Amino acid sequence: MSTIRTACVTGAAQGIGRAIALRLAADGCNIAVGDLPAQKALLDELVDQIQSKYGVRSVAVAADVTDEAAVDNLIATTVQHLGGLDVMVANAGVATLGNILDTSIAEMERVHAVNVKGTFICLKAAATAMIAQG
User: Fold this and answer.
1) What transmembrane ranges does the database entry give (predicted)?
2) Which residues contact 69 (CB under 8 A, 6 or more apart)?
């Protein structure tokens, strides 16, 4: 087994996810980065930065973490392009700011879908890949 680890980070186009991806790359990990399709250009820029600055391999995949097929594709692409998966950072998340009395059920369901369901989908897909690779 190679000593180079491969990590996948969701919500990586900006903020904490981007910082995590850059830190893992600085530590020598190959990195798969995922975020919403609307963020693909930012993901591609991040891949370029990771590869040029840290000399590790990286791949960007547009994936909505609430979509199981999209997450399965993210993990499959990670394994295919980077040779496996060792670390899964299910970072994607959303928040609704404001008074609970002003928060709609639809807003609450969106937060739950991304933060709870999305984390579950990511970790299940990652665990499946990790078990398959031994």
Assistant:
1) none
2) none
